[in-house]
Specification:
Distance between the termini: 46 Å
Strand content: 15-25%
Order of helices and strands: HHHHEHEHEEEEHEHEHEEH
Helix content: 40-55%
Number of domains: 3
Shape: elongated
Radius of gyration: 31 Å
Largest sheet: 8 strands, mixed
Length: 289
């Protein structure tokens, strides 16, 4: 017997009406009728009196009603026990974290998560955002951190942190006394940026295109602190996320905000759309404001 058929039968017996039962269960009347017919065929006996405007149980129907109530009560009790056991399971959480975003935002959140859920094993994998999708799709990660803009129908996302990217120059640079500059005026600057292994590299190039120019990138490296030191030595300029700059900028460098256009920068948590959302994942996502 199908459990839902028993649920339907109980509701019909209570309401004595196919129509009312269907309304209460938010299903079609034909679905209810098919369930009763299926039960009668399975048990090879009529379960209600034919030709009656109200749904009146036969003796067999009364026996089935009592049976159905017992089965559903037992099923729901066991279901609660099962769900509680599953909820008490603390499945490990595999988190993909880009090398820099941890120091900007996620280390404090990870620390809070570990203190709050001491019984959950949290595994952190240092992966650049550009490779995050493939690791998530392969099932190697549960959650991953990327930067905006991020659009992919295969994933669900939740923005975790929003700031901006800023121009960083040496104190000797001709723009060092500026608080804000037009992005479009930077077309002649020599840029020092992160490599294409970082998702941010592509975001930076696209943002320059929006400002009306192709950036002249003279040097690329995957070490953010090296880039900032090179800028401090007046070997070029860079545009990096403001929180990172504020944390690591040299006393010999200055950062300048951008306008026309602005350069928004956000960190986003993503996971596969068809993934089973475990309690370990839910608890982490709940901490993301």
């Amino acid at each position: 017997m199908i459990v839902n058929h028993l649920r339907y039968f109980i509701e019909i017996a209570k309401t004595k009406s196919f129509t009312k039962a269907a309304e209460n269960l938010f299903i079609s009347q034909s679905t209810i009728s098919k369930a009763v017919i299926s039960l009668e065929k399975e048990l090879q006996t009529p379960l209600h009196e034919p030709g009656n405007h109200k749904f009146v149980l036969t003796e067999s129907g009364k026996l089935l009603y009592d049976f159905a109530v017992d089965v559903i009560d037992y099923y729901e009790e066991k279901e609660k026990i099962l769900i509680n056991k599953i909820n008490r399971q603390n499945i490990p959480l595999n988190l993909g974290l880009p090398p820099t975003s941890g120091s900007i935002y996620f280390f404090s959140l990870i620390n809070e998560y570990r203190k709050k859920y001491t019984d959950i094993e949290l595994n952190i994998f240092s992966i650049t955002s550009i490779h995050m999708k493939e690791k998530l799709l392969a099932g190697e990660l549960d959650l991953g951190i990327v930067i905006e803009p991020f659009e992919d129908d295969r994933f669900i996302k939740k923005i975790a942190y929003t700031s901006e990217a800023v121009l960083v120059v040496s104190e000797k640079h001709h723009l060092s006394n500026k608080k804000v500059v037009d992005f479009s005026t930077l077309s002649e600057e020599k840029f020092i940026q992160v490599t294409s292994e970082f998702q941010y590299n592509g975001v930076f190039v696209e943002q320059c295109k929006r400002a009306g120019f192709k950036p002249n990138i003279i040097f690329e490296n995957d070490q953010w602190d090296m880039l900032l030191e090179m800028v401090a030595n007046n070997q070029g300029v860079t545009i990096l996320p403001r929180p990172l700059v504020e944390k690591y900028i040299s006393k010999n460098a200055r950062f300048i905000r951008l306008k026309n256009p602005k350069f928004p920068w956000s960190l986003t948590v993503i996971y596969r759309k068809n993934a089973i959302l475990t309690k370990s994942m839910e608890k982490f996502l709940d901490l993301v404001k």
